[in-house]
Amino acid sequence: MRRILSLFRLRRTFSLVLVAALIWITAGDAFLGAQKTSPAGKAAQAERAKGSIPAAIGTGEKEEAPAKKGISPLVWILGGAAVAAIVYFAVTSLSKKNSPASTTTTTASNTTTTAGTTSTTTSIPASNYDFISALGAFGGGLGQFNNPCDVAANAAERVYVVDSSNNRVQESSPNMASFQAEWGGFNAPGGIGIGPEAIYVAGNADHRIYKFSVYGEPWGQWGGPGSGDAQFSNPRDVAVDGSGYIYIADTGNHRIQKYRPAGVDGGYEAKWGGPGAGNGQFNSPTGITIDSAGNVYVADSQNHRIQKFDTSGTFLAAWGSFGANDGQFNTPRNLAVDAQNNVYVADTGNHRIQKFTSSGTFINKLGSQGTANGQFQGPWGVAVTSSGSLYVADTGNQRIQKFRIR
What are the C-alpha distances in Å from 251 to residues 5, 18, 201? Predict the structure, then answer.
């Protein structure tokens, strides 16, 4: 259709140019013919033929030059071409002025804006991801955020966002069409994990873990400041495995704690880690996730690496180092896994998401620093659904972005 319209515009422009040139030549011929056949012209020619109009000899006047035969055809052709060029550029300028801006400046479509919330559908060229939508703006209303630091999604693609500086969690409608509910009562919450029957929130500044029903009803809490079992120091994230066991990134204590699923906290089960840079040690672990095989992945943020363990805390692998190359990190804050157990890392300081195999082999990456669709400003949270949706907590841009994994 676009090619047909382009051909139509080209033929229309050519027709206008041709008509302008014909009008110019026809008008020129008519003008010359009028000069030659007018009564005054005929009388003057007759008088000259009789010699009744002598030359002014000896009076200092010059003899009148004989009448010109007319303008050269070449001149008329060049003039016609000039007029055609003027018409062409005028038509082109008018066409550009009247064409929609979206056809030349963006590929976005289906854009809506309501109460500081923007949703757009477009495609990111030469990428492994399709941008679907972005919701959010700075503020305190529903669909607005103040440092969204983590994101999770359930099977129906209801999205849960830890709106940290607004001290709440926001819940969206399916497929993140809008945000419709909020839960409060936190002090700078840090992370969120969705289990089979409950949702857990890490109360960063509260040094405790909160438990909710899948509808946001409070079911209890546990913890408190300290370094003992069932105590926490600024816990930043929670993950739940398929059996309901709860794993907590106890950030300030540089360790992982594990709890049984029964009751409010189910009871303390185990812990591993400690401060350091060796295998199985941590420097401010801020993110945790679990794959379908039960492997536990930890974002060891200040060591700029990812560590992998089994469910009992036995070290299995580690990858990453400080830097901006593929497979390197700058303060990775969080991570998620897909149905194939690929690992997606929020590489916060490099303003991007990196994708790896479960053994740490780099696959691809998404994003760069900026505010456009598909760009990020210090992303902290990432979530992947079984249907292939990727959600990113674009913290510095105060929004959540959604992508489709190709």
Answer: 60, 77, 14
CA 289 vs. chain centroid, Å, equals 25
C-alpha distance from residue 193 to each of 59, 87, 88, 332 (Å)? 113, 66, 64, 18
Among residues 336, 339, 335, 334, the alpha carbon closest in space to that of 387 is found at 339
Distance from C-alpha of 355 to C-alpha of 302, rounded to nearest angstrom: 19
Per-residue pLDDT of the chain (406 residues; tens, 9 = 90+): 444 444 434 444 444 444 444 444 444 444 444 444 444 444 444 444 443 333 333 333 333 333 444 445 554 455 555 545 554 444 444 443 333 333 222 333 333 333 344 444 444 444 799 999 999 999 999 999 999 999 999 989 999 999 999 999 999 999 999 999 999 889 999 999 999 889 999 999 999 999 999 889 999 999 999 999 999 999 999 999 999 999 999 999 999 999 998 766 668 999 999 999 999 999 999 999 999 999 999 999 999 999 999 999 999 999 999 999 999 999 999 999 999 999 999 999 999 999 999 999 999 999 999 999 999 999 999 999 999 999 999 999 999 999 999 9
Q: Rounded to the nearest 10 degrees, how much is the dihedral formed by the CA atoms of 36, 42, 43, 44?
A: 40
List beta partners, residue 212: 199, 218
CA-based end-to-end distance of the chain: 27
Q: Measure the CA–CA gap between 236 and 390, rounded to whole angstroms.
A: 21
Distance (Å, whole) CA 354 – CA 342: 10
Please spell the DSSP secondary structure of 69-132, one letter per residue.
Answer: ----HHHHHHHHHHHHHHHHHHHHHHHHHHS-THHHH---EEEEEETTEEEEE---TTSSEEEE
- CA angle, 399 as apex, 394 and 401 as ends, to 5°? 70
d(CA 75, CA 97): 33
The model's pTM is: 0.71
Query: Do residues 148 and 395 make contact, with C-beta atoms less than 8 angstroms apart?
Result: yes
The DSSP call for residue 1 is -
Q: Which DSSP string do the residues of 267-327 spell out, in sequence order? A: -EEEEEE-BSSSTT-BSSEEEEEE-TT--EEEEEGGGTEEEEE-TT--EEEEE--BSSSTT
Report the distance separating Cα 269 and Cα 285, nearest Å: 19
Q: Which residues pair with 29 in a beta bridge?
A: none
